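On clarity, I found the account of how folds are encoded harder to follow than it need be. For illustration, here is how one protein appears when written out as sequence plus structure tokens.
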Amino acid sequence: GPSVAFVKHLIIEAEKRVGTINGVVFPELAMSEREYNKLSRSIVKQDRFLISGVGERARSKSSCGQNEALLDVVVPLTRQSMIKTQFRQKKHHRWKLTKSQIMQYGIGSNLHPEANWWEHISLAARSLAFLNVRPWLTLAVLICEDLARPDPVGDMLRSVGPNLVIALLSDGPQLIGRWPGRYAGALADDPGSSVLTLTSAGMSHLSRPQDGVKDRAGVVALWRDPKTGAQELTLNENADGLVVNLTVEYDEEWTADGRGDGRSSGYAILAGYHQISLK
């Protein structure tokens, strides 16, 4: 995983460019839980949360590996005091590696292409965390396949209707026409969530483009909202991270019996993004 010093220097550089950084997000399986907790102690504060995919390989044949999202945020305990709280959310669906995916990522020497390979994780009690990080903004996190599967947490997600859904992926380039873009579009349509999908640069570059298709491995993230549509976010070769600028647009939502909310519903809108580099 990334070193604490590297992330701190990246935040300092980002704040020189754009001002306060309110959240730091890493993709699926970005680090171990020990690395995450060490990073959290260093960078999480009252106005800055941390979200990352964490993972560990199985320690024995009888045990399962770990693939979870950890969310650390400082919340009010009383009017005078704050407390840092950690939310843990397990991945809800295993990743099945098929022959086409094994060929796409060029890992046939490690995994036989003619076999089906399932992710070795436990599907224990499922949970979904919702963080109210601003009066107008409630966010939820999904891990990879959880974005594409409508059950069992999809119904809960649509019932709550968070303004922002962040999907942590270990996937290829985040192009509008690929599966994350399609399912992000479904959430933008109903319940009207803005969606950020984020994959690791390493996995994106490992993915081989089809013959005749331009290599677009730098597209490590995709933004989609119900107001402005979709935009691919590219990480340049000389950049170490992206800063995403969000603004809020208020609109009126209506109940089934015709009552309005006085334009109090906030939509997270992409206001731009910046490349950040320590080189």
Remarks:
- DSSP finds six helices and 14 strands in the chain.
- The mean pLDDT is 92.
- The two ends are 19 Å apart (CA to CA).
- The longest strand covers residues 265-276.
